[in-house]
């Protein structure tokens, strides 16, 4: 019962501070700063599934939610279902509101909110990305329709704000529906006003 009450309190705080549609069935706190989350569901603004995971783990301090701060050193999802899409190439990603929240660290100027994620881990998940206005191409790698099974990744966010992005992809692996196999793809992505730089890439 305690785990369910903690989950209810946490989801209410996240919804209030960050305007993220989220539900969590239970949260178990371990070692004071580690949380194990069960049945995690995050929706996009259209109320479609963005991420669903039976289990997730985070190294956080839940008490900081009282101060409007959510600092996550490591966020790990076990066997998640990740669904990204945009209606057309010109329209924003359905996860854009979360990306903007992380990049600014604030929901609005009226609330002193602070959200940081340093490392993202995914194990044995499903990853889909679709541009709904584009017809799919069968049997070939289609940049507008990507579906990866056995998807795993290890991503470090060194810096992420409106002015710049410094992201280190330590590894991405999985099997795309076209048959392409990713095996520990690695790269560093640096983005500023003058463009995007991709370095240290290894496939």
Structural features, described:
This protein is mostly beta strands and 203 residues long. It contains 2 helices and 10 strands. The protein has helices spanning 2-18, 96-104, and strands at 22-30, 34-43, 49-59, 69-78, 81-86, 114-131, 145-160, 165-176, 181-192, 195-202. Strands 1, 2, 3, 4, 5, 6, 7, 8, 9 and 10 form a 10-stranded mixed sheet that branches. Strand 7 and strand 8 form a beta hairpin. The longest helix is centred in the first third of the chain and has 17 residues, at 2-18. It is globular. 17% of the residues are buried.
Q: Could you report the average pLDDT, rounded to the nearest whole number?
A: 84
SS-based structural class?
Answer: mainly beta
Q: Tally the beta strands.
A: 10
Q: What is the rounded Rg? A: 17 Å
Q: Please report the distance between the alpha carbons of the first and last residues.
A: 46 Å
Order of helices and strands: HEEEEEHEEEEE
Helical percentage: 10-25%
If helices are DSSP runs of H or I spanning 4 or more residues, what is the number of helices?
A: 2
The general outline is globular
Question: What summary fits the major beta sheet?
Answer: 10 strands, mixed
Strand content: over 45%
The low-pLDDT segments are: 106-112
Brief summary of the model shown:
This protein is mainly beta and 203 residues long. The chain is 13% helix and 55% strand.
């Amino acid at each position: 019962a305690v785990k369910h009450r903690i989950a209810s309190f946490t989801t209410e705080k996240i919804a209030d501070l960050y305007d993220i549609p989220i539900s969590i069935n239970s949260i178990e706190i371990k070692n004071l700063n580690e949380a194990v989350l069960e049945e995690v569901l995050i929706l996009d603004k259209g109320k479609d599934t963005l991420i669903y995971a039976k289990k997730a783990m985070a190294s956080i301090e839940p008490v900081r939610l009282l101060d409007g701060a959510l600092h996550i050193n490591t966020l790990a999802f076990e066997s998640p279902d990740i669904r990204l899409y945009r209606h057309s190439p010109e329209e924003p990603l359905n996860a854009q509101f979360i990306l903007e929240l992380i990049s600014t660290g604030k929901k609005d100027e009226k609330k002193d909110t602070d959200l940081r994620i340093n490392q993202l881990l995914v194990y044995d998940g499903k990853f889909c990305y679709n541009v709904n206005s584009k017809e799919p191409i069968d049997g070939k790698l289609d940049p507008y329709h990507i579906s990866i099974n056995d998807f795993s990744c290890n991503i470090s966010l060194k810096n992420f704000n409106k002015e710049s992005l410094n992201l280190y992809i330590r590894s991405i692996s999985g099997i795309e529906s076209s048959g392409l196999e990713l095996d520990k793809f690695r790269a560093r992505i640096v983005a500023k006003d003058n463009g995007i730089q991709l370095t240290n890439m290894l496939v």
